[in-house]
Amino acid sequence: MFIDLSTIRSGCYLPVITDIPPSLDIDGQSPAGKQLQLTLLAVQKHGNRRLSDSLRKFNLTLLQSDILEILFSREELNLKEIGALTLCDSGSPSRSMDQLVQRGYVDRRRDAHDRRIVHFSITSSGQSLGLKIARAMTWIDDELHDSLSDEGIENMTNALRLLLGNSSESVRLNNRLPTV
């Protein structure tokens, strides 16, 4: 049992008896762990907002942009393979693929041997758009280098990859970027 004298109730200090040691937060995290957790969430939110803002002029979602980037560097993939490579949780890959096909950025082709399988590839319009998006996203690299050295970026990347461990996100990342 620990006594917390810092709790204020009705303008008075009242001792609170708790099982949580003073070095841990109410959810059992250390202050440093909680700070890291909240910082990661804030960075993710900030990054997603900035990415969404950058993609708005192209009328694309984060997932659609992610799919175009995947197809940009590969010949042809089916929906399951694309889904295994995406790093965005928002939206449905099949719905996003339909929209990209309708806009002429992606071609859809049924497999010659198994009609249940559909293959997708990027069109020349999709490649052109992918290049425009890449140019519009240079702010990411600029912001990183404004804040961190190359060594700092490498160290942060390695630390974050350690946090991912063997998660499904780590597997997806390794499939996208086999050598970082």
TrEMBL record:
The keyword Endoplasmic reticulum does not apply. It holds the Pfam family HTH_27. This is HTH marR-type domain-containing protein. It comes from the Bacteria. The keyword DNA-binding applies. Keywords: DNA-binding, Transcription, Transcription regulation. GO terms for molecular function: DNA binding; DNA-binding transcription factor activity. Residues 33-165 form the HTH marR-type domain. Gene3D superfamilies: Winged helix-like DNA-binding domain superfamily/Winged helix DNA-binding domain (1.10.10.10).
